[in-house]
Amino acid sequence: MNTDVTRAGRRDGTPGAEEQPLTRPPRAAVHAASGHRLGAAHPRQEGPADLRLVPPALAAWATAALMLDAPTGWAVGVVTGSLLLAGALLLAAPRGRPHVPVAALLLCVAASAGSAALHGADLRRGPVPELARRYATVTAEVEVTADPRLTRPRVRGDRAVPPTVLIEADVRRVTERDGQTVTTRTPVLVLVDVGESRTEAASSRWLNLLPTTRFNVTARLSPPRTRGDRIAAVLRVRAGGRQAPETTAKPSTAQRLAGRLRSGLREATEDLPTDARTLLPGLVVGDTARITPELEEAFKETDLTHTLAVSGANFTIVLALLLGPPGLAQRSERRGLAPRLGLHLRTTALLGGLLATAFVVVCRPDPSVLRAAACGSVALLALATGRRRSLLPALATAVLLLVLYDPWLARSYGFLLSVLATGALLTLAPRWSASLRRRRVPPRLAEALAAAGAAQALCAPVVAVLSARVSLVGVPCNLLAEFAVAPATVLGFAALATAPMAMPLAKSLAWCGGWPAEWIAGIARTGARLPGAGVDWPGSWAGAALLALVTVGVLLAGRRLLRHPWWCGLCALLLILVVVQPPPLARVIKGWPPPDWRMVMCDVGQGDALVLAAGEGTAVVVDTGPDPALVDHCLRSLGITRVPLVLLTHHHADHVAGLPGVLRSRSVGAIETTALEEPADQAEFVRRQATARHIPLRHASAGEQRRSGPLSWQVVWPPPSPPTTTAPGTEGGPNDASVTLLVRTAGIRLLLLGDLEPPAQRELARSPAAAALKGVDVLKVAHHGSAHQDFAFLRQVAPRLALISCGEDNTYGHPAPGTVAALRAQGATVLRTDRDGALAVTGTRRELRVAGE
Question: Is 244 in contact with 218 (CB distance < 8 Å)?
Fold first, then answer.
């Protein structure tokens, strides 16, 4: 039984709690021995929120954001004016001092403007900015300031852009070609091209550089792409795949220890299943190097990305191990390791401060990490001084101190989202939770619903600016994932701490932590696969304002609906139907896909992806486009779960880079490609994808005929050729080696040309299959409707319907006006994905129709 402890002796002379011989549990005795005045076991309710520090924090934040790239004169004027006005208010203040808050706000504005001006001047000081404007080649000594990271492979036109190592650093010494050496300290971004050799060894020499490491590099300087960036220049290293960095100074002791801990956690998770192996280091220390693009996209679709960014939740879990539940930190029955070890409150707060410092070093000083550590440190300071904790002033203090320390945080979306989420949990969530409890919602469920809903309401407008999308499954996915975050984090930190000393124990802990990590990954994948997981939204601040208004309207309507349980149930059912979109209902409401579709040209941007119906839930896929997410979305909207064949017409990235999206959660029978394996890197990419999933890979050649259900097709190009010769018409390279298909379904004949250029088109017109190509019903126009067409061949084919797959506002001018005009002159109906979206061919040869999504 706990005994209440009073703060002092009573007025009637009865001794206070410290003077009475009480029988207490050990934790209470330890707490009393700390010498602090303690709150009661059940203190009174908090009064109104303390908002005094909020205006200074917001003013400092706004000032820093505006003054970072302002002229020096403006900064001096703001600082001087604010100081003079603040001094005048203080001198003129009456005895009640009503002007003190305004004067404090002006002082914060002056301090923020001065700090932002000094940080902004770093981008203009020294020789580096001028050298960057001249695109000079220099030899520089740079100091790493953040963990290097590897960009995701991306598609540019028909080529895949090799990954690049990004290193945030400071130039400490620069030597020009004339031999002049200047000492400076200028923030830059180092880009290291790892080249065509994408092996781990080629990039690991750069990726393993720890913060505070110094190395020499010869690179070409260039200005940053956008004004307002945190860097003064970009250093591009061209020979990164073959050249190792020349280290001149090792990292600091703290960074070496942090690096050892992080690498130990990676080693401990090495043997886990794929999702746990990639996700657990991200949950614990923000190490997302192993996160696959597919999993990253799933986390974005479900608004779970914040779990990969180390934040206040992680720090709260770590502090809870030391202090126990935060609500009991100042009560006589406090829990955690500290009271069990007999530590006083001040000692506990000191250990918490050291833990916060270690937390920032190991997890790296990202905006959310800094915000979490600063808030925790302020709360620990309040604990050490015996003052009652108030988390809203702690948040405001953290924002103020961090913006003064690093004004660039004022322009960080990560910092903004972190502060908004924390503010939602401190202000809206308690009220919403109390409202739900009054309506007989169980307390734990009410708290979880209120926390997830409040964070979603405040953060969604900012997320919409970044992703141009609003998630409809964010709240339920966060609720389901919340139960697994704490055990995964605790077990992950335990593996992190034990890895340097006992790797077998660390692997056991990591194996246990892998279970909740896989649960979180499963929630993300499942939510992202739902047809209505999100809706597109304008990715601008005007769109954010519109979403905020919609959110307010929904909340006001929700308050009224809570009084009517039946209406709440009906709205919940409608939301479920919108998100799940059962195929029969979706076809009735959206009209997509048409019930008798034969072929669909997916809208995948600047690329090709065609789907040929081969039965219920079954289709042959011809090309996969440049983006796995886009082709996966197209196949999900069509309800395709089985793909007997994926045919890749040629190996350009805009036709094959989306292959992982087709293979995602589907049964694939085989992959067929052209025999010309160029470009070599993309041919190797296809081979790796097939090998990893044990899918047969073969080459197609003219004369092959195949069937799948009601669908039949014949390969009409390229012709077979001996290994030592080049097939006729393929001198144009990969485009002219495109596999060309004549497809028959429901009496409709479709000619799919890939990216055939005029030489191959002319050869095809003279081939044995030429007679079968005359007067086809549907033509997939070659090469996205480019001007490189043989118009005599188009007249010979004479399609009724011509379909062009191209990206909106593409830089290639596809489709060419001349090509479109030539097709229309022959009586063909021309449709294009950049204007009409995904296109579905339906009906029969007599009643040929086409529908857009």
Answer: no
pLDDT of residue 27: 37
How far apart (Å, rounded) are the C-alpha atoms in residues 229 and 492? 34
User: Which class for 712: exposed (0-12), middle (13-18), buried (19 or more C-beta within 10 A)?
Assistant: middle
- CA-CA distance, 790 to 120, in Å (whole number)? 57
Residue 535 — left, alpha, or beta (φ > 0 → left; ψ -120 to 50 → alpha)?
beta
Tell me the torsion sign for CA atoms 751, 757, 763, 766.
Answer: positive
Q: Please, are residues 669 and 645 in contact by the beta-carbon 8 Å criterion?
A: yes
How far apart CA 628 and CA 661 sit, in angstroms, is 4
The sign of the CA dihedral 214, 215, 216, 220 is negative
pLDDT of residue 2: 39
Amino acid identity, position 689: Q
Burial call 226-241: b when 16+ CB within 10 Å, e when fewer = eeebbbbbbbbbeebb
At 658 the pLDDT is 93
- The predicted pLDDT at position 568 comes to 79
- 592-609 in b/e form (b: 16+ CB < 10 A) is bbbeebbbbbbbbbbbbb
Closest-CA residue to 715 (of 755, 684, 673, 678): 673
Average pLDDT over residues 364-389: 65
Cα Rg for the chain, rounded, in angstroms? 32
* Contacts for 671 with CB less than 8 Å, ≥ 6 apart: 645, 646, 647, 648, 659, 686, 689, 690, 695, 696, 697, 698
Question: Residue 99 corresponds to which tokens in the numbers above?
Answer: 């002007």
Per-residue tokens: 407: 């004004």
Torsion of CA 455, 459, 463, 465, to 10 degrees: 160
Q: Residue 139 is inside which H or E element, if any?
A: strand 137-144
Residue 308's pLDDT is what?
76
3-state secondary structure of 770: helix
Which residues contact residue 611 at a Cβ distance below 8 angstroms, ignoring those fewer than 6 apart?
Answer: 599, 600, 602, 619, 620, 621, 622, 634, 635, 638, 640
3-state secondary structure of 304: coil
Nearest of 158, 236, 162 to residue 196 by alpha carbon: 162
Angle between helices 474-498 and 274-285 (to 10 degrees): 80
Per the CB < 8 A criterion, the answer to whether 336 and 321 are in contact is yes
Closest CA to 749 of 716, 782, 720, 701: 716
